[in-house]
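Hi, here's the filled form for the chain we discussed.

Project: internal
Contact: R.S.
Residues: 209
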Amino acid sequence: MMTRETLEVNAVRIFFTGVGGQGTLLATRMVGEAALEEGLSVTMSEIHGMAQRGGVVESSVVIGDAFSPTIADGEADILMAFEPLEALRALPKCHAKSLIISSTVPVVPFTVAVGQSVYPELAALHDSIKEKIADLVWLDAVELARKAGSERASNTVLVGVLAGTGRLPISKNSWEEALKRTLPARILKINRQAFEAGYAFGSAGQPLA
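And the returned structure, exactly as it came back:
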């Protein structure tokens, strides 16, 4: 139970997008729990789309003085993209000063796998995003997660990057408590390592893509 009074901050709107099987929902919960631990007001959306592997999943967290978790076009201050093509598709949610944190590892849609369509080249995706949004963190979250112990923790890597940027008024301790609240004990250690890898990346002032 929270013992601190709820802090009032200007609303920060975070839009999450990925595909089923990437842990988008879990990452959304991590961010929400960290904000709650910090004593901030939080509203969270339900997941939209198909949560099974391969289906598009979207969710949102609004931290601060806001009454609804709904993020309209042009309102997202931060876009968390777990898949690069989904980052491009979600661009209408962003505004000129938004921060985008995106994994560069594609999840090939079924239509591509069966030859009905072609997945865009990563360089083209990158350039299309950069044309609209300058503040882009573009990283191989899967590789960082693999080095931390499990590539399945790439969602936690991206949450760590967000934490490391310092864009949210959330302490390192609150992030760590959020991991304990949202993760089973059997995978907590690896996810802590993945979070730390992302946090180091985000806090080191990595050159934006």
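Let me know if anything looks off before we file it.
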